[in-house]
Amino acid sequence: MKVTGTRTDILVGIDPRDISVPVLAWAADEAERRNAPLRLVVSVPPLHDTQHVDSEPQHMTLASRGTAALARAAETVRALHPDLTVTTGLLDGMPAPMLCRQAAESGQLVVLGSRRLSRPEEWLSASSVAVPVSAQADCPVVVVREPEHTAADPGRLVVGVDGSPASRAAAGFAFAEARLRKASVHALWVWRPPLVALHGEDTAVEKRRALLATTLAGLPDAYPDVDLVQEVRRGHPVEELSEAARDALAVVAGRRGRGGYSGMRLGSVVHGLLHRAECPVITVPTGGG
Predict the structure, then answer these.
(1) Does pTM surpass 0.85?
(2) Tens-of-pLDDT digits for all 289 residues of the chain?
(3) What is the distance between the alpha carbons of residues 279 and 289, in angstroms, rounded to a whole number?
(4) How far apart are CA 243 and CA 190, in angstroms?
(5) Are strands 141-143 and 281-285 parallel, antiparallel or unpaired?
(6) Going by C-beta distance under 8 Å and a sequence separation of 6 or more, which residues neighbour residue 277?
């Protein structure tokens, strides 16, 4: 998808059926941190039965609900941050593709809520948004399923690292975000030992510690004010990252390539985090940090 505009906006996808205050608060706080405009959008999907005599009134009703939802969401944001620049947009089309198009045109970040759909529902439902946008958008995507944890001071961002360019992009985003928030970074490499180990586990862990440091090379120097913890754990990546992020501001993960509309090609770790993590999940495409 070709980028046609300047990436300035924090984009928020609004669901007229459930306007999430935590999502709006997260996005508004982020826009203030970045000194960026906030853009709230609702996408009105086309009606399947375009030949039905009542199709146009039904579409107008959906559009009217979308307009009302945008007004309520903008009012909520302005109550939280009166000086924030807020714009709204009522789009015509399926929500996930339209959000990806908006992201390509002007988004530096997309913020979404989660309807907590099951995996089959995500793949089969036309209303699925969080997974396909996380899989396709060419900028970082934040899914606020659970509020960030702000009790700890300073706050902490957890980032999954596996040596890939995608995890390098995720780590870069995590450091930049941590500097904005005066937070620390917990970089975690999760290793799943083979059933039959050819070498000692201690040697394998030391090797991964070295690979972790190599993947992060340059970032601690570029962000000297950001404290860094590096850790290698044995176990399942989704379980260990979710556990590490239980009291975190967010968990950050990289995305390899671009998935299909359904999100079925979204990496299993990112997909698992969207279901399991008890904090916001930030997906960063390669080159999107």
Answers:
(1) yes
(2) 444 457 899 999 999 988 999 999 999 999 999 999 999 999 988 876 445 545 556 667 888 999 999 999 999 999 999 999 999 999 999 999 999 999 999 999 999 998 655 554 444 444 579 999 999 999 999 999 877 887 778 899 999 999 999 999 999 999 999 999 999 999 999 988 765 555 667 788 899 999 999 999 999 999 999 999 999 999 999 999 999 999 999 999 998 755 443 334 467 899 899 989 999 999 999 866 5
(3) 20
(4) 12
(5) antiparallel
(6) 145, 146, 241, 242, 245, 251
CA 268 centroid distance within chain: 15
Q: Please tell me the distance from the alpha carbon of residue 30 to that of residue 150, in angstroms, as a whole number.
A: 14
User: Residues near 169 by Cβ (< 8 Å), separated by ≥ 6?
Assistant: 254, 284, 285, 286, 287, 288, 289
Nearest to 156 by CA among 189, 188, 180, 178: 178
124 in Cβ contact with 216 (< 8 Å)? no
Coil, strand or helix at 76: helix
Distance from C-alpha of 183 to C-alpha of 189, rounded to nearest angstrom: 20
* Helix, strand, coil % in the chain, rounded to nearest 5: 40, 20, 40
Report the DSSP pairing between strands 38-44 and 107-112.
Answer: unpaired
Nearest to 142 by CA among 280, 288, 33, 247: 280
Question: CA–CA separation, 151 vs 212, rounded Å?
Answer: 28
Q: Is residue 128 within 8 Å of residue 95, measured between CB atoms?
A: no
Q: What Cα–Cα distance (Å) separates residue 238 from each residue in 50, 83, 278, 280?
A: 43, 39, 12, 14
Q: Is the distance from CB of 99 to CB of 13 less than 8 angstroms?
A: yes
Can you read off the two tokens belonging to residue 222?
A: 């570029």
Length of the chain: 289
